[in-house]
Write a structure and sequence with these properties.
The chain has one domain. It is built from 9 helices and no strands. Helix 2 packs antiparallel against helix 3, helix 2 runs antiparallel to helix 6 and helix 3 runs antiparallel to helix 8. The chain is globular and about 55 Å long. The relative contact order is 0.24.
Length: 214
């Protein structure tokens, strides 16, 4: 058990840097919080966390190794991710100003109505699941830090801990970005925030397009 604890601490030391690094997931949660409100952003956070378990699962089961060795499979996943990032980037660029009335209390229940919980969850899951970079991230850290004889159940436990920490981080982001002060500021600058996030998504898509399997 002591060896497994050391493995978990080592994994989390590496993963903590990945959690706080700016990327498509952070941009997605921030935009969800500002445009659709705290609840939708939190649901999106759970979608991202679930996608992380998806990546961890196929990595543990060996699919990560298969994709890393196949340029064809890598390109399929990569271009799906590129298309998705560019799509949501273009949508953000086309978005107009979003008017947000600051409520009397601090509970944000959605700036724009109409986005279902399923859609919010799917946005987070798809944004993370269609990104092939975690394939190599989890493959590398699991093969480097986790012992070959570590039971599969323990490995899945590591994944659950990482997914939980990721969700907690993004729930924190969702809460901060939906305070009345932040929402009022967004009402004044929503169009430019949308354009900026759109450029970020498209830039991430272009960056992803240049990634190579090896």
């Amino acid at each position: 058990m002591h060896a497994y604890l050391i493995e978990l601490i080592s994994l989390m030391a590496i993963f903590s840097f990945a959690i706080v690094s700016p990327g498509a997931d952070l941009a997605m949660v921030m935009r969800q919080a500002l445009v659709h409100g705290r609840r939708q952003a939190i649901i999106t956070s759970f979608g991202i966390g679930s996608a992380l378990m998806f990546h961890v699962s196929y990595t543990i089961l060996g699919l990560g190794l298969i994709i890393s060795q196949s340029v064809y499979l890598f390109n399929i996943v990569k271009w799906l991710g590129v298309a998705y990032l560019v799509y949501i980037g273009v949508k953000a660029l086309k978005a107009g100003r979003t008017e947000i009335a600051v409520p009397a209390d601090t509970q944000a229940d959605g700036a724009k109505k109409g986005q279902s919980a399923l859609k919010a969850f799917t946005l987070g899951f798809a944004a993370n699941a269609l990104n092939p970079k975690p394939v190599f991230f989890f493959l590398s850290i699991f093969s480097t830090v986790v012992g070959a004889h570590t039971p599969m159940a323990i490995k899945f436990g590591y994944g659950l801990v990482m997914a939980t920490c990721l969700i907690i981080w993004f729930v924190g982001v969702s809460t901060f970005m939906t305070t009345p002060r932040m929402r009022a500021a967004f009402s004044r600058a929503s169009k430019w925030i949308d354009r900026t996030s759109g450029v970020v998504f498209i830039a991430l898509g272009i960056k992803l397009a240049t990634e190579k399997a090896a």
